[in-house]
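Sorry to interrupt, but I need a hand with the structure work. I would like you to pick a protein and set down its sequence and fold. Please put the record directly below this note.
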Amino acid sequence: MVRPSPAPTPMPTQGRAETPIAFIQAIAAAYAQRGLDVSAALIKAQIEPKLLKKNNARVTAMQMEVFSGVAMQELDDEGLGWFSRRLPWGSYGLLVRASLTSPTLGLALRRWCRHHGLLTEDIHLSLNERNGVATLQLDEVRDLGEFREFCVVSLLRNALGVACWLTDSRIPLTATHLRITPPAHAESYRVLFDGPTHFKASANSLAFDAGYLALPVRRDEAALQQMLQRALLLTVRPYRRDRLLVERVRQTLAQHPEHSRNADDLAAWLNMSARTLHRQLQEEGASLQQLKDSVREHRARALLLRTRKPLKQIATEVGFSNEKSFIRAFKTWTGQAPETFRQTT
C-alpha cells in the first residue's frame, strides 16, 4: 500500500487463499467508479473474473498484493477509491519517509497519523496511550460508503505494518475494534488481525502494549528504498519478529505463574503457538528455560530476604514441586544454598 512493486516475482496463486473476495470486489468497484476496465488487473493477479460474483470466495495474499499494486498504478490512487480525492502514486511512501527520522515508534506513529491528515480529510487517525495500552484509532469524517470496510481494514493493517517495519519487530495486538457489523467473511478476521476482533464497536481501533511505542526506529533511507520495492507486504503479511517478546514472557512468568507450567500454556496466554514462542525467543538470543530460571531466581531471592517463610513454602511459591529441587536449582543459580544465602546476605 505504501508504494508497491510493479512486478512481484512469485506466482500470485502461491500460498493459502484466505483473503476475502470482498476486498477484490471493492477494488473492482473503484475501477467501475472511474469507468475503467478491471480485466487486465485480474489477469495479472491470476484472479478469475467469475470469482467476483462468489461472495464466499478467497484469494491468496500474493494475489491481493499483485492486484492492489496494479490497481494503484492504473488508477493512480493509493487510496483505491476510498477518498473524495485521489492519493497519487507514492503518497504513502512519503508518509513513511516523514516518520523515518523519529527516535521512537511513538513519535513515528504520531507523525504518520498527523501527516495522513494532509493527504485526506475524509478520515482522522490518532494515537492514544492509557494505562499501558496504546490505541491507534481511525475515525470516519465522511461516509466511506461501499469502501468502508476495505478502507478501514487496509489503513489499520498498513499502519501496523509500517510500525512493525520501522522497529523491526512484530507488534501483537491485544484487540481490534471495528464499527462495522460482522460481515459474511468475519472468520477471515482471525487471519487479518491477531487477537480478538470486536465488531459494532464505538470506534475503529487497534490496541497493543504501549511498551512498543518506546522501541527505537531502526530503519534508514537505504532500508526504505529496499522496502518500497514490495511495500504491500507490510499490509498483506504479518511481521514475525517481536523485540518485546522477552520482556512480555518475563512479565507473564512473574505475574501469572499458573501459565508457566509448560510452553503450550504460556504460548496460548500470549496468543501464539509453542513452536512460534520458542523460535522467536531464539531469534532474540533467549530461551524459555533461561527466562523461567531468571524469574524464579529473582522471586526466590526476594522471598528469602524479605520473609521468614520456610524453604518448602518458598519452593512451592517459586514453582518447584519439592524442596530438594528448589535447593539444587538455587545452588546452580547463586553458588549458595538458600539458607546460607538468607543468613549471609
Remarks:
- Residues 285 and 321 are 28 Å apart (CA to CA).
- Residues 288-345 form a domain with the Arc Repressor Mutant, subunit A fold (CATH 1.10.10.60).
- The chain has three domains: 17-236, 244-286, 288-345.
